[in-house]
Specification:
about 80% helix, mainly alpha, 9 helices, Methane Monooxygenase Hydroxylase, Chain G, domain 1
Length: about 230
C-alpha cells in the first residue's frame, strides 16, 4: 500500500482537525526556562563571558519557540486544556528567560560583579524553574502529581524575598562611611560617593531578580490552575 494519507483520512482531518500536542510543546518551553535559569546560576557563580553568551542563545530559542507555539495556537481548532491556559503557559514560561537575559546584560553594562545575594536568588529561581519543568511534563500522564511542583513555583517569590530583604539591609549599611567622614579621613567623601553609586547599581539588579521570582510565580499559578482542571 502506498504511503501518505488516504482521501478518507484527509476528509476526517478537514472535518475534525487534529489537536496539536500542546502539552508537549509547553513542556519544551518549560525545559528552556529550566535550562536558562541553570545557566544563570553558573553565570552568577563565574561571571564568565561564555555563560553570558549561552544565556543569549537560550533566550533566543525560548522567544522563537514562544512565537511558534503562539502561531500554532492561533491556528488550532481545539486545545487539550483551556485555550487561555495554553496561551498563559506559552507566554509566562518565556518571560523569566527574557528577563534573566536583561539582568545579565545590565550587569555587564554597569560592570557589576555578582555577589552572594545574587547567587542565592538565582539558585531559588533555578530550583523553581526545575520544579515547573517537572510539573508541566506530568500534565499529559499524571497531572495530579504536578501540584507539589506548582507549589514550589508559587513559593519562589517568598523565598527570594527573604534573600532580597537581607541583601538590602546589608547594602544600605553605611556606618563605616559615616565614621570615616566624621573622622575627616582622607578620601572619605569620595569613597562614600562610590559606595552610594554601587548601592544603586546593586539594588537595581536585586529588584530585577525579585521581579523574575514574581513572574515565576505567575507560571506556577497557571500550572496550578491546569492541575485543578484536568486532575
Amino acid at each position: 500500500m502506498s504511503g501518505g494519507s488516504s482521501p478518507f483520512t484527509k476528509m476526517l482531518d478537514n472535518v475534525f482537525p487534529r489537536i496539536p500536542p500542546f502539552l508537549d510543546l509547553i513542556g519544551v518551553q518549560a525545559g528552556l526556562l529550566a535550562k536558562g535559569m541553570s545557566v544563570a546560576v553558573d553565570y552568577f557563580s563565574e561571571s564568565s563571558t561564555a555563560r553570558f553568551h549561552e544565556i543569549i542563545v537560550i533566550e533566543t530559542q525560548a522567544r522563537e519557540l514562544r512565537e511558534k507555539n503562539l502561531d500554532i495556537l492561533n491556528n488550532a481548532f481545539s486545545t487539550p486544556i483551556d485555550r487561555e491556559d495554553v496561551l498563559r503557559s506559552i507566554v509566562n514560561l518565556e518571560v523569566p528567560v527574557a528577563s534573566i537575559r536583561v539582568v545579565i546584560e545590565e550587569m555587564d553594562a554597569l560592570k557589576i560583579k555578582s555577589d552572594n545575594a545574587m547567587l542565592e536568588m538565582a539558585v531559588v529561581l533555578r530550583d523553581s524553574a526545575a520544579a515547573l519543568q517537572r510539573g508541566f511534563s506530568k500534565l499529559d500522564t499524571t497531572p495530579a502529581q504536578a501540584e507539589p511542583d506548582a507549589q514550589v513555583g508559587l513559593q519562589c517569590l517568598s523565598n527570594v524575598d527573604k534573600v532580597y530583604r537581607k541583601a538590602l539591609s546589608n547594602l544600605y549599611s553605611i556606618d563605616d562611611d559615616l565614621a570615616k567622614m566624621r573622622a575627616h579621613a582622607d578620601g572619605a567623601e569620595v569613597q562614600a560617593m562610590i559606595h552610594v553609586v554601587e548601592m544603586l547599581k546593586r539594588r537595581e539588579i536585586y529588584r530585577h531578580l525579585r521581579n523574575i521570582a514574581s513572574k515565576m510565580g505567575d507560571a506556577a499559578s497557571v500550572l496550578h490552575n491546569i492541575v485543578i482542571q484536568i486532575s
